[in-house]
Amino acid sequence: MTTGVWLVGARGSVATTAVVGAAAVAAGLTPPTGCVTESPDFAGTRLPDLGDLVFGGHDVAGADLAKRAEQLVRSGVVPAGLPELVTDDLAAADAEIRPGVRVPVDARDQATAAAALASDIAAFRERRGLDRVVVINVASTEPPAGEHPAHGSLDALSAALASGNDVLPASSLYAYAALTAGCPYVDFTPSTGARLPALDELARRRGVPYAGRDGKTGETLLKSVLAPMFAQRALRVRAWSGTNLLGGGDGATLADPAAAAAKNASKSLVVGETLGYPVDGQVHIDYVADLGDWKTAWDHVVFDGFLGARMSLQFTWQGCDSALAAPLILDLARLMDLAHASGRAGPVNELAFFFKDPVGADGTTGGPGVDHALATQYATLRSWAASR
């Protein structure tokens, strides 16, 4: 069983780290640290081997993967000398990267652009003789999309596109192309992506699954563990504030308040949803160029104990965003392959374990089947994977 992994943002830090990591693990050069699906809990699950993943993708950037890998070596993300050991894998993946699109689309309307994107994916599948292709969006975060009548139903969206109207944000254009090509789609960013009623309808009609959104790799991962602790111990949280310092391309993108709004919204969900009541405090994101591919998060939690005793918790999380995200990309590719092979269509809410803003069973945020507690999400994931 050979599975294609088509990455939107294929020459970015996360994508490059995933390609290097998959090749290195498959060759026995490094252990699969951080890969959930490589743990004993998933032994015997019908997942494609890491060595059977074939990479390609879309990107608007021009630098090849080998150069990006060397930049990641200099940043301390990838071990020195490792890119040279997987040169052939990097070259093979780079040869399968095709030009992406921006919105507004250059000289083409969105219907034409989407058809070209879908054709690229279908050609990749045929050229490499793949059983299926999983499309994963790891591109830069975009501002939240405004509501548009065409987003409400597939017929309305199809009519708008056929009329030459540009109605989709870039992430949703890629999602539309992936679903049209009959491919599972994953939103790893907080961008709109497949989170539109029209695209949910398209996924169900085409019989393909989708999942997302916004990968849970750092501060929110800790929140999804700590918030249930406060709830289960009946401790009243009064305020929860966080400051995030980000470098790299993601940090530069989130320096734009419009793009940061989408990220902050997904990062703020878990506390209130888990505790069941509003909590004071805000999440802040600041761009610090010198941090490169690294990030630091500092959180301050104020809570009440017995007899109203006021107490606090503070924690600091420092990590490499690409190294935290890349193994999850490999997990999601394998699990979405499993979902598609088992006939799943529409949202795969059982993959909520991986996301800050997981899709519900009805395709909405916070819909049926969504629980933000990490332990509960993990139990659901294990049970689902074992039953396929």
Automatic annotation (TrEMBL):
<dbReference type="Pfam" id="PF01658">
    <property type="entry name" value="Inos-1-P_synth"/>
</dbReference>
<dbReference type="GO" id="GO:0006021">
    <property type="term" value="P:inositol biosynthetic process"/>
</dbReference>
<dbReference type="InterPro" id="IPR013021">
    <property type="entry name" value="Myo-inos-1-P_Synthase_GAPDH"/>
</dbReference>
<dbReference type="InterPro" id="IPR002587">
    <property type="entry name" value="Myo-inos-1-P_Synthase"/>
</dbReference>
<dbReference type="GO" id="GO:0004512">
    <property type="term" value="F:inositol-3-phosphate synthase activity"/>
</dbReference>
<comment type="similarity">
    <text>Belongs to the myo-inositol 1-phosphate synthase family.</text>
</comment>
<dbReference type="InterPro" id="IPR036291">
    <property type="entry name" value="NAD(P)-bd_dom_sf"/>
</dbReference>
<dbReference type="GO" id="GO:0008654">
    <property type="term" value="P:phospholipid biosynthetic process"/>
</dbReference>
<dbReference type="Pfam" id="PF07994">
    <property type="entry name" value="NAD_binding_5"/>
</dbReference>
<feature type="domain" description="Myo-inositol-1-phosphate synthase GAPDH-like">
    <location>
        <begin position="218"/>
        <end position="322"/>
    </location>
</feature>
<protein>
    <submittedName>
        <fullName>Myo-inositol-1-phosphate synthase</fullName>
    </submittedName>
</protein>
